[in-house]
Amino acid sequence: MASLLHRSPLTLASFIHTFLPPPLLYYLTNVLAILGPKTFVYRLALLPITCCMAYRAAVTLDIARGFLSTDPARLEYMNQALVLIMFTVFTRSLVRTFSSLTPQRHQEKQLALDAADLTLNLRGVGWNFSAGMKIPAHTRPLAPTSAYLAATGRCLAIHIVGFDFVHYLSQLLAPTGGIYDMAISDPLVRNLRATVLTILVGLCIYGAIQVGSDAFTFIGITLLGQPPSQWPPMFDSPWLATSVTEFWAARWHQIFRQEFLALGAKPLSRVAGRPGGVLGAFMVSGALHLVGLWGMGKGTDIRVLYFFLMMGVGVILEGFWRRFTGRRVGGWMGWMWSCVWIVGWGPFMADPWCLSGIMHSVFLPQIVRPSVWLHRLATSILHSVNL
């Protein structure tokens, strides 16, 4: 991969001529995909242009330095988001170009709006290709819309506070380094700290995605006029999963399900059956997270790919268990097994993320961080008690 050391800060001009073209070309690909098989030649001709433009944007733009020139490393996650966006444009352009299934919306409006929804609707809610996707049941009142927005606002506030608290705690434990502190001589204490940080990193990822989901829900409903029914919950209490399969297939977010299935599961299942399909899906997931880590500007770490492959191995083992015992993995023992397997392999994901500097990042200014207020208040109280 190209070096990210000489990227240019994001400006209005570079946003227009470098950032915007890939999403617009992807939108045009979606227009052609909706029109059906007759547009395949045009989609095929558009694909290399889209991929080249997406690659150019990923390796030449520096969003972090465009916003914070003095210490851009603290906003490096913005470049990670940039790379993930462009990688998604690339993978979904591949899917739209070669898929034999014409995308169809359950409630068609008009071509331009349908293509916009197909471009921005990450999970594909309401589209025929999302059949079989586990969508969490709505937990907020769908009518009136004002009640749904009020509930979403409360949820957004709670998740911002929760995310900030977990992120602040992670910063205290691992401000710039990885999850392993080799200065701790006791291996039990050292690994216990690493396990705690692994869980905190997972909670940070959950919180960040949930905050983004709530924010985009507001935008979709208030600015785009979408109905609340189009915004089901992003997660389904993943901490309650009683199997590794349930965690990834039903309770975790399904944002990238389209490319995992089309580019990983389906091709490899033809070669190696269900085990091949499972590993294929997790391999694409690993590649996506590997590229995202690279976007942080400090190289990448193959352990991220190993983490997701081991998640696939866990799913395959559960399939063997069901085949030989006739029973699904579940219950409290299934919950314990899932926790041990996911958290046990979690350092392969958490350590590279911490080493990339993600915990050093600034998501909220210090002056408005709830965790900072709480820390200062607790310190003040303890100081006054000691006096």
From TrEMBL:
One of its GO terms (molecular function) is O-acyltransferase activity. The chain crosses the membrane at residues 12-28, 40-57, 77-95, 276-296, 302-320, 332-350. Residues 231-309 form the Wax synthase domain. GO terms for cellular component: membrane. Keywords: Membrane, Transferase, Transmembrane, Transmembrane helix. Coiled coil: none annotated. It holds the Pfam family MBOAT_2. The keyword Transferase applies. InterPro entries: Wax_synthase (IPR044851), Wax_synthase_dom (IPR032805). It is found in: Membrane. It is a multi-pass membrane protein. GO terms for biological process: lipid metabolic process. Belongs to the wax synthase family. PANTHER family: LONG-CHAIN-ALCOHOL O-FATTY-ACYLTRANSFERASE 3-RELATED (PTHR31595), OS04G0481900 PROTEIN (PTHR31595:SF57). This is Membrane bound O-acyl transferase family-domain-containing protein. It comes from Mycena albidolilacea.
